[in-house]
Amino acid sequence: MSSKKNSGDMTELGISFFDRSNVKQETIQVGVGVPLGLERVFDSRCGIGGVYGSWGKSFNNIGLINLIESWLDEFITEDEKMNLSDLGFVSRHHTPLLNESEHLKLEIEVGTRILKEAIECNGWKPSEIEGVLLGISGPISDDYVCQISRQAGIPESALKVSVHKACDGSMGALNLSLNPRLAAPGQVNIAQELLGKKILVGGIEGLSRFISKTRDRNALQLFGNGAGVIGIIPGESLKFLVGKDFEDYDEDGVLAVRMFYPHSRERKPGKSMVEISKDNDSGVRVAGLMHEPMDNSPIAMTGMMGMVKLFVRTGVQVVSDVYNSYQAMMYKLGTPDKSIAVAIAHHANLKINSLKHKQLQKIGINFSMPWLLSDFGNVCSASNIIAFLRQLPLLKPGDHILFDGFGAGTYYDVLAVEMGG
Questions:
Q1: Does the predicted TM-score (pTM) go above 0.70?
Q2: Domain ranges of the chain
Q3: Which of 69, 249, 266, 316 keeps 20 to 30 A from 20, CA to CA?
Q4: What is the pLDDT of residue 11?
């Protein structure tokens, strides 16, 4: 390949996550060494804390193009280059090319450290944890959640829930942990089971491994590694108000994603696309059907306009339904003036989120939807949790928060909660 190189170090400088003063940095000894950065956030008033971060080298938007060209062994044309700054992203993190065993070792170590940090941040002990619920788009192994929980010292008896609903994964996990109405017939009612217990909820996304094998130019530019995990006590530090999950199959494959997890790949009329199975006595898998790429690649996207149409129209409707239920509840409780303090939305990209915000305002729904992840790129199910932790210092006990999750498939999990304290 020709040597068209420009590190991007002096042009279009985006502040790297690793440059933040509170980020704890270390190197995981896999391959040539992989940098890991983690930042803790704890709010004693609300009794909620957690950790978020990323691993791999930080690339700004110019350096990213050079990396992608080296992966593809060909140039990206000017027409193929996205205006990433306008999409809200200035940097993202990628690991070097590793073999399968190295990826497994790396991601188990990353996940283990994140769980340990989240537990310590909340002042808990691993032995006190009774649930771990994680969203993961493309797990490195079927028993990933069980493996990292065991490595972190969490009891075997703790409930482990692995949620595979693409970018909606962590919100699917949070909804399951708080919303007792989501229990499927014949399945454990996860929210009832975990009420009042110390649990960990989040998303861990090793997307470098996932996308480095695709040739889709859009996916290569948008996604990066990221993770976020919070410690909560359902019913105490976070109190469920109203919520909804929704699914609407992506017939056209606007965002086609390969399923790196067990699923029958069957669509049954009138039945949910989500399959729930038990891995063992304490492990539960929640797996969503995806429209998979025809060429068996990890991911294929039709373009930005298709993405907007895919997520905005239905997403606005689901948020509207939950917001209307929220208003009805507030009226019933005699607090009709109580409002949503902030909405924590999945950070797909700034244009999608801004358009969604405008469409909600047009129908009379107006609350803050801050953009908080410019230094990560799209980190799928990790994004809501990272955004929440970055917003946490501005929240106070009694605040009502709307979590808005959506992802390929397509899946939506939207819920309103009250901050405890």
A1: yes
A2: 17-419
A3: 69
A4: 34
